[in-house]
Specification:
two-stranded antiparallel ribbon, 4 strands, 54% helix
Length: 287
């Protein structure tokens, strides 16, 4: 498996249109439709979903970018050591787009944007978190294919070649994989970690939609987002085991530490949410 076309779609003067950005935009648009549908089902104004999406995107992109900027990835990838000496490149979107976004930073930033939005319009923050959760996983599933186009975020070489193995061109190799004698371009296939995460997120999207309807009478506002904070981190923790370029702190990748913290916080929030004994407003379990 290898990208059938270049990462760039077209150039418009100093600006570059890339598949990575296009797929992120597509994922965000589809997430908006899902958010509007979930808002309608919960008795909220679906038109507000598009306003909320803008707030989430603006703060989410800022958060995702900052997470990347302050990271310290291995294998010679750009991180804080580079941006510390080249601060203008933090916002230099005219150099081919923001080639560096961290999903956990995006989730934190997006949640902050949603919090400010709901405070501004006197809406339920927890209920709107639930409206966001399924679409967020769908957007992540789509956005990960941008890594396929860029030939990045791949895992180690496969010991046994499999049909979904990813071919990586010499220009996109890093670390020991630049040795084209030991890892020939023609025959070496790498684990497509982007694909594993995309599939995990796609399954999670379907499960959250199903759970929101199947358990509508039991779930309280905020529960569905807590389920997101459990589902995605569990998959991400496992996938990070196949990421040789991961930013590490001690024996684990930083994303693994964040995943562990996310699961613990989400489980505690679920227990607290149900212990408080406050039922949410009735929800229509129909689609």
């Amino acid at each position: 498996m290898s990208p059938p076309w270049p990462a760039e779609i077209m150039r418009l003067g100093p600006f570059v249109v890339q598949w990575y950005g296009l797929l992120i935009a597509l994922g965000a648009a589809l997430a908006g439709f899902v958010m509007a549908s979930e808002a309608r089902r919960r008795g909220e104004d679906p038109d507000r979903a598009w306003d909320a999406l803008i707030w989430c995107l603006v703060f989410g992109i800022i958060g995702a970018r900052l997470y990347h900027v302050f990271s310290s990835p291995t294998g010679g990838f750009v991180g804080w050591e580079y941006y510390r000496d080249h601060p203008i490149d933090i916002i230099a979107f005219w150099k081919g787009g923001f080639r560096g976004l961290g999903i956990y930073g995006g989730v934190i930033g997006g949640a902050l944007g949603l919090f400010l939005f709901t405070r501004r319009y006197h809406l339920s923050f927890r209920r709107w978190l639930d409206c966001v959760a399924p679409g967020l996983l769908l957007a992540q599933a789509i956005g990960r294919w941008g890594n396929f186009m860029n030939q990045e975020l791949y895992g180690p070489p496969m010991q046994t070649p499999l049909p979904w193995g990813l071919r990586i061109d010499a220009a996109h190799r890093f670390g020991p994989y630049t040795d084209l004698v030991a890892y020939p371009v023609e025959t070496t296939r790498f684990h497509p970690t982007f694909l594993y995460e995309s599939l995990w997120n796609g399954i999670g999207f379907g499960l959250l939609l199903w759970a929101g309807r199947r358990w509508a009478r039991w779930l309280r506002d905020g529960d569905l987002f807590c389920l997101y904070l459990i589902w995605y981190p569990v998959g991400r923790f496992a996938i990070e085991l196949l990421r040789p370029d991961a930013w590490r702190i001690g024996s684990l990748a930083t994303a693994q530490w964040v995943s562990l913290a996310s699961v613990i916080i989400a489980l505690a929030a679920l227990a607290l949410n149900h212990r408080l004994g406050r039922n949410p407003a009735p929800q229509d379990p129909s689609p």
